[in-house]
Design brief:
This protein has about 350 residues and is mostly helical. Helix content is about 50%, strand content about 5%. A three-stranded parallel sheet has the order 1-2-3. It has a two-stranded parallel sheet with strand order 4-5. The structure holds tryptophanyl-5'AMP.
């Protein structure tokens, strides 16, 4: 049997919970925008169904969904060239997730570290949706037969599970239907760390606002957060090797490199021997120069929510046009009768 060739297609998603933070921007959104220029179809999603796996106030969820759409667009995502939509407007995500719930094994879900982190000590009280979360994520990707998924490092295990689900489906139904999706985890900012603790990733849900830069922070807040960022007392080294046991310093250098679009080696060379008293203000200036135009544009877009909703609706139409025929094929493979006129 000759191996099926799959049309290259990029898919990724972000949860509309709280504000976008610098890790999401550098590890995800900025890279999504870069991939939009590679001549491949790009599909980017606001995963509102994933968001409700933990409690969301409905009004806050609507606001966060629009704000995330604004964040994508303000960062350079072009809703004409890419498909931008919110997950719940394309019913196939939830439909395929159910089928994948019947393909994935409980033992696979039990190994997911993100569930353990999020559910914490009280796993008995976590929603069933939080447990099944990775199956919905696999459905997001495979509903479009996506071949490449740009993400930060924390999503790696979920993408391995997606491949396991695709392989088991192909095997069980004796088809070569789903591609083995490739994770794209590249660049210097695939794991941006907390500004308060170099061993924890920067996160939207960290209780300490000082641990992260939000895309909506103003220039003073950004400068203040970098000034207070935890560091050691040593001057910066002359080589990358010198950052090995200095996670906080390495994190700030990586953030600078990603914002400046330079290799970390060049940043280290530029600041060799300087203290954080010199480096932090330079980092804050660079961050403000890069992020404040995005924040301004987000605010402008948020003034017209109807236009954002129109863009999302239009994106959902286009996404559904790709998804529906694929879902029909899946139903046929699984043995579902489809006799309702459409
Ligand atoms: P979410 O919403 O937690 O994060 C969105 C994206 O941002 C990346 N990211 C980071 N990158 C670098 N440093 C950080 N500190 C950092 N924090 C977050 C994440 O890796 C991610 O790429 N499960 C996903 C959403 C999702 C999805 C999908 C992604 C649902 N379906 C299908 C890809 C494909 C999540 O919770 O991402």
């Amino acid at each position: 049997m000759t191996a099926t060739t799959f049309t290259p297609r990029v898919f990724s998603g972000i949860q509309p919970t709280n504000h976008l933070q610098l890790g999401n921007y550098l590890g995800a959104v900025k890279r999504f925008v870069e991939m939009q220029n590679n001549g491949i179809e790009t599909v980017y999603c606001i995963v509102d169904l994933h968001a409700i796996t933990t409690w969301q106030d409905p009004a806050d969820l609507r606001h966060a969904t629009r704000e995330l759409a604004a964040g994508y667009i303000a960062s350079g995502l072009d809703p004409e060239r890419s498909i931008l939509f919110n997950q719940s407007q394309v019913p196939g995500h939830a439909q395929l997730a159910w089928i994948f719930n019947c393909v994935a094994r409980v033992g696979w879900m039990n190994r997911m570290t993100q569930f353990k982190d999020k559910a914490g000590k009280n796993a008995e009280n976590a929603s069933l949706g939080l447990y099944a979360y990775p199956s919905l994520m696999a459905a997001d990707i495979l509903l479009y037969k996506a071949t490449q998924v740009p993400v930060g490092e924390d999503q790696k295990q979920h993408l391995e599970l997606t491949r396991d689900i695709a392989a088991k489906f192909n095997h069980d139904f004796k088809v070569d239907f789903f591609p083995m999706t490739e994770p794209v985890i590249e660049g210097t900012a695939t794991r941006v760390m907390s500004l308060r603790d170099g061993s924890k990733k920067m996160s939207k849900s960290d209780p300490s606002d000082a641990s992260r830069i939000n895309l909506t922070d103003d220039a003073d807040t950004i400068a203040q957060k970098f000034r207070k960022a935890r560091t050691d007392a040593e001057p910066l080294p002359g080589t990358i090797d010198g950052l090995k046991d200095r996670p906080e310093a390495r994190n700030l250098i990586n953030i600078y490199a990603a914002l400046a679009e330079q290799p970390p080696e060049a940043v280290v060379a530029e600041f060799a021997g300087k203290g954080f008293g010199a480096f932090k203000p330079a980092l804050a200036d660079l961050a403000v120069a890069r992020l404040s135009p995005i924040a301004d544009e987000m605010a402008r877009l948020m003034a017209d929510p109807a236009e954002i909703d129109r863009i999302l609706g239009n994106g959902a139409e286009r996404a559904n046009a790709i998804a529906q025929p694929i879902l029909n094929d899946i139903y046929d493979i699984v043995g579902m009768i489809r006799s309702r006129p459409v």
